[in-house]
């Protein structure tokens, strides 16, 4: 990653000093990086004598309970289950941290209250193309594994922690290691020299990685694994362009009693097949189809998500949606849409290569 600007750190310290009420926010359907970053910052701000509140668009998923258990009751709110309190917490803050998202629309139902808020806003994020005009202070870096990693480097640049991970609150260290672990898919992708330095410092500081890995990857429900089996044997398609796709409909989710967050990681599995260059995962939601994309080097999942799925993200990991009935009339039309869109996309890449783009 590029170096952190020390005058930005001074501005950040100043903003924190001057602020009474602080809200920490993250994107819709928060993942390990979003929840880990929010939790780590919460514990650091607490230690600084502040009273921060974490406000999320949707509840933190159950599998991250080992990270959020240490957060005071009433200090983590979400718009889905307690909208009035969540809205008041955002509207009443002097300072709002925006973690792991690059634009307000990524917070879904929280977008309006964020846009209307007159609080100072600080962005800490690792996605492409941040909407800088919306923030008073922007820490945006794409050459890092995760927001958790970027936050780690920011915290250690602060006078209080003086480059010593051992000075971080233990709960913050655990949360940062968790965020980095989930966004790198347990060190499988987006690992930079700075990522390993972070991991090494946190291990030295006493973080129990075996415990984190146990919670993240060894506590699945049996039904989740059996569903993976069904999807891989009966649902997975691979096109002649090397695009793999799987479509998960509501009926199948109900049959396996699937909960929010349980399909995390499904999209990565087909990428382990040699001829697969991009993997797409479609999941039926209330009024839309949610889309996850992962690609190998040389193919931009971000571009595919932006052109065909109203979304974006990172070069190799992106997401978006298909609107029902505007893009597809129902889940039954997704396969045809996926085949057509990805064929066009992969052909355009081929053409770009030939014409030197
Ligand atoms: P996932 O497939 O895990 O849901 O998302 C992969 C990456 O794409 C994440 O970094 C996420 O923030 C980003 N992403 C997911 N959905 C959207 C979307 O609708 N719009 C944008 N801009 N990014 C998304
Ligand atoms: Mn992230």
DSSP helix fraction: 40-55%
Radius of gyration, CA atoms, in whole angstroms: 20 Å
Q: Categorize the overall geometry.
A: globular
**Attached small molecules:** guanosine-5'-monophosphate, manganese (II) ion
Strand pairing plus helix content: what structural class? alpha/beta
Strand order of the largest sheet: 3-2-1-4-5-6
Tally the helices: 13
What summary fits the major beta sheet?
6 strands, parallel
Structure notes:
This protein is 40% helix and 17% strand. The protein is α/β, with parallel strands linked by helices and 357 residues long. A hairpin with a 3-residue loop joins strand 11 (312-313) and strand 12. Helix 6 runs antiparallel to helix 7. Manganese (II) ion is lined by residues 33, 100, 126, 146-147, 183.
SSE order and pairing:
Layout lengths: L5 H13 L2 E6 L5 H16 L3 E6 L8 H4 L7 E3 L4 H9 L3 E5 L11 H6 L3 E6 L11 E4 L6 H11 L12 H14 L9 H12 L4 H9 L4 H14 L1 E2 L4 E6 L1 H6 L22 E7 L3 E8 L5 H8 L3 E2 L3 E7 L10 H22 L2
Helix pairs in contact: 2-7, 6-7, 7-8, 7-9
The chain binds guanosine-5'-monophosphate and manganese (II) ion.
Manganese (II) ion (MN) binds next to loops.
Task: Using brief descriptors, characterize the structure shown.
6-stranded parallel sheet, 12 strands, alpha/beta, 6-stranded mixed sheet, binds guanosine-5'-monophosphate, globular, 357 residues, 40% helix, binds manganese (II) ion
